[in-house]
Amino acid sequence: MSLTEIINYSTILKTKILPVKMQELYYMFLNGIKKVDTSTTSHNHKVTEEQLIALFNIRQGILENLNERPDVGDLVSKSGIDKTLIQQLFHEVFGYTIYNFYMVNRMERVKNVLLKGKLSMSEIAEKFGFSHVQHFSSTFKKYFDESPSRFVKLNK
């Protein structure tokens, strides 16, 4: 099925299908990356295989633990690549700064947990490291333009 067909699906079905499609696109990207000219980026940096591996390691490290705010400095230093360069390359390859990538993916995971309906708002807030339910609610509204409770009502 194509992504344009998925747009017509119900919201609940979309939340189940889109993560699968995203994973599929990710694997297609990884398979195609060897065929893409990665010799330069938009800022004329030469992108090496070592840098690509470092970028995907940082990405994976973030995705594996969305419950805690990543230590960007630690992730970058573990890459062994210049801090400014790796941050710039991360933004160019993934379209987000390292921290924004974490936040967008964290909020998508929060949304999916919320839709499952197994945890209360306070349990979700605690699980994903929000200081309190109000902070969770305001952050959710910032990303999805509605409160978590309204979002659940509209999507159940």
UniProtKB/TrEMBL annotation:
One Gene Ontology term of the molecular function aspect: DNA-binding transcription factor activity
Keywords noted in UniProt: DNA-binding, Transcription, Transcription regulation
SMART domains: HTH_ARAC
Top-level taxon of origin: Bacteria
Entries under InterPro entries matching the protein: Homeodomain-like_sf, HTH_AraC, HTH_AraC-typ_CS, PchR_regulatory_protein, Tscrpt_reg_AraC-type_HTH
HTH araC/xylS-type domain segment(s): 56-154
Name recorded for this polypeptide: AraC family transcriptional regulator
Species assigned in the record: Flammeovirga pectinis
